[in-house]
Specification:
four-stranded antiparallel sheet
Length: 431
């Protein structure tokens, strides 16, 4: 099926509802950079697309990093001196600092406070905190809960394990006509955070489902990894494959109601940067294009100087720029089916640009070919101009995206024009 046909038939709201339902399934599970919660998430993805799981042992050196011990948790709570659970991991998995070491102690409120985290300015939300690479422990709770704790003795239990195991990541390869690849990467390591985690997972999964139905020009590689350590691990094990990556996107924060933000690759002018800008510009919707900075998600690993891959980050509201970020406010109500569906459509449109960005050569380059006798001059003005621009720049050195940027005509319009010109044997593709 051609990609433009798929886009024309896609019911973005219905697909958005399906993705939201998938997010609802995953939401309660306690994920981390290793452990059973991460694996369970990938097993759920496997039911939808045939990703391959890779297990890398703890202690493995991956460039300057070392795979940490595997962390799993069964239960955690703080009980008051009446035996009541005043903080309970079973109620919300953000209550425990992710990667906390095991604890079973009694202590005063003053000692306990040294291990408690809240957000005073958001008194009803639970913060998200981690201690991946430092052995420590702690609890997170709403500030309202914290200020209501009376003096007394508390029983603190974190029933967790931290021992040698594996880091797990998922990978799906979709072969195309070319060896050159498009990389789609998402982090899957956060617990109950619906936008900053689950939205990327469900949109990437659905994107892979749709692309499996398409005759692809490029090959596509989907990665479902724990943040930072996962992308570094993949790069360390796949340096040769990384040389084949021609374009790529890190996906995150795709379910909130904000406008789109595209963060450019380190190169700044890669084809993926231009394709994303083209789609967002002609969407006529609010959006931002921002320059690369070496902070954020896994794009900073793929764009590190030893690789400098052409990979940007596609999101709606950026991390840290919505109040719900890394708190219990980032829940399933914050993520909207309409936004998920719209994010999928924009990604398919970006891929349509990549897939259709051929260079053309005119087969009738001396003077302007007579369009009228070929039935091509009766089209509306923009379509005629699209044909004229395509014919004039079909010199083998300009891609269709080059023509779109120079002519100020949408890529989709030029793609249709080029197709009509090919049918009339006026142009031919050369790449």
């Amino acid at each position: 099926m051609p990609l433009e046909t798929l886009l024309a038939k896609l019911d973005s709201f219905a697909v958005g509802r399906e993705m939201h339902s998938f997010a609802s399934l995953l939401y309660p599970w306690c994920r981390s950079i290793t452990g059973d919660g991460f694996r369970d998430t990938l097993y759920a993805v496997i039911k939808r697309i045939p990703i391959e799981l890779h297990e890398v042992p703890s202690g493995t050196q991956v460039f300057d990093w070392t795979i940490p011990d595997e962390w799993n948790i069964r239960d955690a709570f703080i009980k008051n001196d009446h035996g009541e659970r005043v903080v309970d991991f079973r109620n919300h998995n953000l209550h425990v600092v992710n990667y906390s070491v095991p604890v079973d102690r009694r202590m005063s409120l003053a000692e306990l406070r040294l291990h408690l985290h809240s957000i005073p300015e958001k008194p009803d939300w639970i913060p998200y905190r981690t201690t991946y690479y430092k052995k420590a422990w702690g609890f997170c709770l709403s500030h309202r809960q914290l200020t209501a704790l009376p003096n007394g003795e508390y029983h603190v239990v974190i029933d967790s394990t931290l021992k040698p195991g594996h880091l797990t990541y998922g990978e799906l390869f979709l072969p195309g006509q070319m060896e050159d690849e498009v990389l789609i990467s998402v982090h899957c390591c956060h617990p109950s955070l619906a936008n900053d985690n689950l939205s990327g997972i469900v949109v990437a999964t659905r994107l892979a489902q749709e692309l499996r139905r398409i005759d692809l020009r490029y090959s596509y590689r989907f990665l479902f990894v724990p943040g930072t350590i996962g992308s570094i691990t993949w790069l360390s094990r796949n340096e040769k494959i990384a040389t084949r990556i021609a374009h790529g996107l890190v996906l995150t924060c795709l379910g909130d109601p904000g406008g789109f933000t595209y963060k450019k690759s380190r190169r700044g002018d890669a084809e993926i940067d231009r394709a994303a800008a083209q789609v967002l510009r002609w969407s006529k919707e609010p959006h931002r294009i921002v320059d690369f900075v070496p902070y954020g998600y896994d794009e900073r690993q793929y764009c590190s100087p030893g690789f400098n891959l052409p990979i940007g980050c596609f999101m709606r509201s950026p991390h840290g720029e919505f109040p719900e970020y890394h708190t219990s406010g980032d829940d399933l109500d914050f993520v909207q089916p309409e936004a998920l569906g719209d994010s999928l459509v924009k990604l398919l449109q970006i891929i349509d640009v990549l897939e259709g960005n051929y260079r053309y050569v005119s087969l009738n380059p001396k003077g302007e070919p007579q369009l009228g006798r070929r039935g091509l001059y009766g089209a509306i003005g923009e379509q005629v101009m699209a044909m004229l621009w395509t014919l004039n720049l079909a010199d083998g050195s300009h891609s269709l995206l080059d023509i779109a940027e120079r002519s100020n005509i949408p890529f989709s319009t030029l793609k249709t024009a080029a197709s009509k010109l090919r049918e009339q044997q006026l142009v031919a593709t050369i790449a």
